[in-house]
Specification:
This protein is mainly beta. The chain is built from no helices and ten strands. Strand 8 and strand 9 form a beta hairpin. The protein has one domain.
Length: 108
């Protein structure tokens, strides 16, 4: 069984007992978070697709880590103009372990 949910303009695939690395959430480590904007639910036999969301379905998880990703280097260069710039960026993330997917997709 898996579900696809939306959070912050991105879509994530959630399966039971899997870890998802997503954009930073305002939740402490060990806190329980739930996502109710479920777009698709597949239970092994049938698929429920929302319009745009499936009502009554919720994905619940536990925050296991707050951190920052590895540094991404951005190099800007313009030939023959002596222009070079090196920039770096570290994106903050939250790692969430999916505990359960609740509900059924009956609104097909």
């Amino acid at each position: 069984m898996y579900a696809i949910f939306e959070l912050g303009g991105r879509q994530y695939r959630a399966e039971h007992d899997k870890t998802i690395k997503m954009d930073k959430l305002d939740a402490a480590v060990g806190a329980t978070v739930s996502f109710d904007k479920v777009l698709l639910l597949h239970d092994g036999e049938k698929v429920a697709v929302g319009d745009p969301y499936i009502e009554g379905v919720k994905v619940t998880g536990r925050v296991i880590q707050q951190g920052r990703d590895r540094k991404l280097r951005v190099f800007k260069y313009k030939p023959k103009k002596r222009y070079k710039r090196m920039l770096g960026h570290r994106q903050e993330f939250t790692a969430v372990r999916i505990m359960q997917i609740e509900g059924t997709g009956n609104n097909q």
